[in-house]
Amino acid sequence: DTAVSQTPKYLVTQMGNDKSIKCEQNLGHDTMYWYKQDSKKFLKIMFSYNNKELIINETVPNRFSPKSPDKAHLNLHINSLELGDSAVYFCASSQVRGDGTNIQYFGAGTRLSVL
Amino acid sequence: KQEVTQIPAALSVPEGENLVLNCSFTDSAIYNLQWFRQDPGKGLTSLLLIQSSQREQTSGRLNASLDKSSGRSTLYIAASQPGDSATYLCAVATYSDRGSTLGRLYFGRGTQLTVWP
Is the pLDDT of residue A1 over 70? Predict the structure, then answer.
């Protein structure tokens, strides 16, 4: 079973549309993340939720809105898509252990192409 | 703000060579450092994780070292194989504003490795 799964794997859409990317983890983790990897392969964090509470919110356009219905899911909704939103979006999850360590596990990514 | 730099950006070598990939970071206040592998069109696979209190970790032909005070890490790949061809990413984990480990991962731009037969 895939630990962190994202859907869809590929998303091609027109500029101006609204789209959502879903992420689910079956690891029992209480923290989930969204990262964006741009065309130059640079990975950067966008959001993080811990127990459904937003804890990291980087400087991203407010067209991007994460939603966490429960600890196992963190969805990313994007309004009014722009050409510059084309990228690969990665979901990750983690759990802080008793010794304080925190290892993130990544999904396979969603490749978004805005035409 | 943390910045992670990886050198070289690309590396092309014949099979069998021993390789060193470099990673440097500007802020030594990290709690771990990870090396990831990314194959084209795929997600990230964690290769090695070094806690801030450790100096190195080994897994098979891979060895990663960490010098936290100087802000450097190296990934050593012994006896490289064509199957090692991928992009290797270095990421440092920072503490949150509240001092917990629920902070950020900062990634380098990666080293694209090609190993030819």
Answer: no
